[in-house]
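The protein record passed on for reference:
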Amino acid sequence: MFLKVTNLSMTYDKKTLYDNASFSINRGEKVGIVGSNGTGKTTLINILNGDIIPDSGNIEFDKKIKVGFLDQYLRIDKNLTIKQYLHLAFEELNKVSKKAEEIQEKIIHTTNGDELDRLVNTLSILQERLEDGDYYQNDSKIMRIASGLGITNYGMDTLMGKLSGGQKIKIILAKLLLEQPNLLVLDEPTNFLDVTHVDWLVKYLKEYKGTVLMVSHNQEFLNEVATAILDIEFNKITKYRGNYDAFVVKKAFAIENHEKQVKANIRERKELQEYIDKNKTRASTAKMAQSRQKKLDKMEKMTSMSVNHKKLHLTFNYQSISSHKFLEVKDLEIGYYFSLLPPISFEIKSGTKLAITGFNGIGKSTLLKTLIGELRPIKGGFRFVDDAKIAYFAQEHEWEDDTLTPFQVISNLYPEKDAKWIRSELAKAALTGEQTMQPIKTLSGGEQSKLKLAIVMLQRANVLILDEPTNHLDQEAKDSLLELLKKYPGTVIFVSHERAFLNELATKIFSIEELLIS
């Protein structure tokens, strides 16, 4: 068995995630891990990585395999260039190459015949190892993956310390792919990729010879890549063969069969109890009543698998505005120290749902940050109507104090409001019960996104500027967010790497790539 997990139990911050859960992964499988926000998908990844110790259970890996994890919080030497960092993927072969160079230097200065023969023989062995590992193709391997993920757009000699968080994650992913582990474990690998680079990753993973275990809320991605699905729900981990669509059908069928069994179980328990109540006091039937009581006591009480997933019920605090020209952008040049792009010009009316598109790193987030006033224009300018009110959703999960709870965050923003109001507003963002009182740092990525959406919802605004709002959200939350934004009477300016979300919401598209080639 490639990977086997048995009787896994884990309670995190008083919440049971798994209760004696078991599953196995076969060699070569591409397995998607799915489940609602907060069910323990990333925790499972961290358990397999050894970063978290479960309460109980046994995890068996094939001892010969090399495991690679996509660590989004990895510390990186900021003084390395992108190319230098990616070359670290070949660390073992780099050592062999260095050793070969040292021996070559010794050969030049060696006159002893026996010593020379030994050195030449050793050099031959080392060079054979380098050739077997395609060491001399490393540069082309790096450029293939860097190009596929859009990393070459940053400049391969750019220092890692000058990159954004999302750009670093893409480069960490590239290094991981270059290492070619036997088991590749990925947590939301498409979050920081645009549509073109998601398509490239899909093709790469389908051709990948190793085994892949991936957490993702991107249904299109899982449909293309996954050959099996691990579903985390009801504190269990259930494996289904096939892609995401096949999983949905099989799970629905399994739930339907289970519900029939639950109804039969309830009916039988009721009939037994009625017989016991009617006959336990009669001498002639008391023994039979006792027999049925024993049967009832031994019978498992089945529970329903039907569940009402928490949907978003955001009520955006819309401030009405006239429908004339809402935003005019004219000859705007954006960047941090120098202009990243040619001058940008466009205009939109109130109520427009504008999608900003372009490959990752082209400047989409920079444009949004300029529009909200976080960055100053390099040249040119833009103008919202005078009564425009902006609410902004940032891509990164960055908090001033991640030890605060969602309840405390909203309370600090609206100190005049009582506890009932705060809980009600958080519930609209599908944050209820214990979630509202957990420190932010203990919440899942999806739960943190929901808190950010709650903050956006409460701001009095008529334009929502959203940078990758679906990142980390489960499918139910994404679907309800899409419907809410489609009905929103105000303006929405957004960036999204999810093709379906973008196509459904956008009433107008501004392509930065077209700007570059026009």
Summary: The longest strand covers residues 15-25. Residues 194 and 497 are 5 Å apart (CA to CA). DSSP finds 17 helices and 17 strands in the chain.
